[in-house]
User: What shape does this take?
Amino acid sequence: MNPKVILFDLGDVVCRFVPERRLELLAAACGTSPQDVREALYGTGLVDLWDRGGATAGRIHETVRNELGFKGGRAELERLWCAAFDPDHEVLRLVRASRPCRTALFTNNDALLLSALPRVMPQVAECFDKLVFSCELGAKKPDPRAFEQALSEMSADPADAVFIDDKAENVSAAGRLGIPGVRFHGADALTETWKTLFPM
Assistant: This one.
């Protein structure tokens, strides 16, 4: 097949997503409970708003300070924000092995994570040609607009790309736009898929 562009999801593809760790660390830093942090950020819809581009990284920091009593600086909040992600080194090896195919990290996430990732997790950010975040696109997967803008960012046609995500609804949405999709079921399965994508 030899695609020209591969779009990788972040959470539970490139990295294992452990949101409870972020909640616990934020709670400890703010002197409150993980449940209270979850309600303040997720229950109120703030995280969804941020993922759609509703706040800058600086504004997110300010909101966490005001709503949760976080006393730390921006760099400390970035560290806690990134704590929800554990890099899957086997997947990252496949990302690097896909050269000269261009790669993008295509994720539903906020401006704080986009700002933090190159500094806090350079071993992830540096593997990709481009970081394509929903907060900059103004739309989240599985919205067709998110996929269309991601392809535009990579200057790619649907048939030239492959999209890898752990969520069936996102893979289906990509397929409806003519983007070949791969449902992620672990690094071992993706290694087998690589043999089809990049035949010797």
